[in-house]
C-alpha cells in the first residue's frame, strides 16, 4: 500500500510511541521454563463431534482404499519383475509401501523425484491385500503411503491396529508382540 504524499493542508502525523514492555523476571527454574515452551498435546475428547466426524471420514477413506486397486511401483533393485520388491520409503523408523491411485499420481511422484523420463514398472494391487498381506510380510513396522507426491491430498495408512493386522501393528501390547 502506498501513502499519499503530504500536501500543505495535510500534516504528516508523528508516529505514536509505544511504551516499552516490561521484561518479565527470569524464571529461576530452567526446567520449568522449558516446560512452558513445549507444546502440550491434547488428548481427543471421546464425545467431541469433530473427533467423531474425523474418525468416520478416515474410516470411510480406509474402506474405500481397501476396496480399490492401486498402482505400486517395483523397487529399483536389479532383477526380474518377480525378484524385485515393492517401492518403499522409510520415515522415522517405519517403512511405507508407496502406492498411487492412478498413472497421473505416479507421474507426479516421478516428476517430483526428477525421474520422469525413466520407465516405471508397477503392479496393480488391491488396497486390502497391501494392508493385510504385504505390510505383515515386510518384517519391520510398515504402512502404506497413497499418492505421496500430492501433499495434503495424499493419505497415510500407518501400521496401527484397525488399519493393519494386529500382529503387524506398532501399537499392540507388549504381550501381543510376535514376529511382524
Structure description:
With 180 residues, this protein is of the alpha+beta class. The radius of gyration is 26 Å and the shape is globular. The model is unreliable at 1-27 and 32-38 (pLDDT under 50). The protein has four helices and six strands. The longest helix has 19 residues, at 49-67. Strands 2-3-5-6 form a four-stranded mixed beta sheet, with helices on one face. It starts with 29 loop residues before the first helix and ends in a 23-residue tail after the last strand. Strand 5 and strand 6 (155-157) form a beta hairpin.
Write the topology of this structure:
Blueprint (H helix, E strand, L loop, with lengths): L29 H8 L11 H19 L1 E5 L14 E4 L2 E6 L3 H10 L9 E5 H11 L4 E5 L8 E3 L23
Parallel strand pairs: 3-5
Antiparallel strand pairs: 1-4, 2-3, 5-6
Amino acid at each position: 500500500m502506498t501513502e499519499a504524499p503530504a500536501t500543505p493542508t495535510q500534516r504528516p502525523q508523528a508516529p505514536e510511541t509505544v511504551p516499552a514492555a516490561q521484561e518479565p523476571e527470569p524464571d529461576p527454574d530452567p526446567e520449568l521454563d522449558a516446560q512452558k515452551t513445549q507444546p502440550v498435546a491434547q488428548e481427543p475428547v471421546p464425545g467431541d463431534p469433530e473427533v467423531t466426524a474425523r474418525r468416520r471420514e478416515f474410516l470411510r477413506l480406509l474402506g474405500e482404499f481397501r476396496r480399490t486397486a492401486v498402482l505400486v511401483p517395483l523397487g529399483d533393485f536389479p532383477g526380474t519383475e518377480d525378484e524385485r520388491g515393492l517401492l518403499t520409503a522409510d520415515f522415522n523408523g517405519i517403512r511405507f509401501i508407496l502406492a498411487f491411485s492412478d498413472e497421473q499420481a505416479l507421474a507426479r511422484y516421478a516428476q517430483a523425484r526428477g525421474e520422469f523420463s525413466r520407465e516405471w514398472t508397477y503392479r496393480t494391487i488391491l488396497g486390502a491385500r497391501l494392508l493385510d498381506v504385504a505390510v505383515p510380510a515386510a518384517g519391520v513396522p510398515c504402512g502404506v503411503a497413497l499418492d505421496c507426491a500430492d501433499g495434503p491430498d495424499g493419505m497415510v495408512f500407518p501400521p496401527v491396529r484397525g488399519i493393519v493386522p494386529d500382529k503387524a501393528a506398532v501399537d499392540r501390547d507388549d504381550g501381543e508382540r510376535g514376529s511382524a
